[in-house]
């Protein structure tokens, strides 16, 4: 079923050049854009600094979890198995889980857990679009981006449970600059 849904989404690729360009741009620039927006929160109010710090920690933790998973799970990419047509350069690592989805959802869920709902919804919308773009351009299965979303959400939850706002380390970190 994962392959069938992935193929269905990717079969839209190549139909409308404008959509192809938008999806390629999302897959390549979505995460750097999200990181830049998170970084801009550093110069906002203290609650936004804490949210930016938590998002950064969740981003890093999520990617670290992915590296551990990649050592154990060796899933070929969908273009390697003939499920999709690739629109971007091939990747050198395994397919599951998606680092892009992990990073995007780590940021979105971090802001949701910090009670910043409008920002969380905006980040969530971008996270969904970035994740779908990874399937559209043929580099991931839908299950890969779903697994990445789960890893990102888990990382954000772990950071929320362990990194308390206002503790000594948090005050030090958020007082920088």
TrEMBL record:
Domain Phosphatidic acid phosphatase type 2/haloperoxidase: 52-160
Pfam families noted in UniProt: PAP2
Domain of life: Bacteria
InterPro entries, per the entry: PAP2/HPO, PAP2/HPO_sf
UniProt KW Methyltransferase keyword: no
Sorted UniProt keywords: Membrane, Transmembrane, Transmembrane helix
Gene3D superfamilies: Phosphatidic acid phosphatase type 2/haloperoxidase
Record-annotated membrane-spanning stretches: 22-44, 51-74, 94-113, 120-139, 145-163
PANTHER family, A to Z: AT30094P, SPHINGOSINE-1-PHOSPHATE PHOSPHOHYDROLASE
Protein name (database record): Undecaprenyl-diphosphatase
The species this protein was found in: Rhodobacter maris
Lineage, top ranks: Bacteria, Pseudomonadati, Pseudomonadota, Alphaproteobacteria, Rhodobacterales
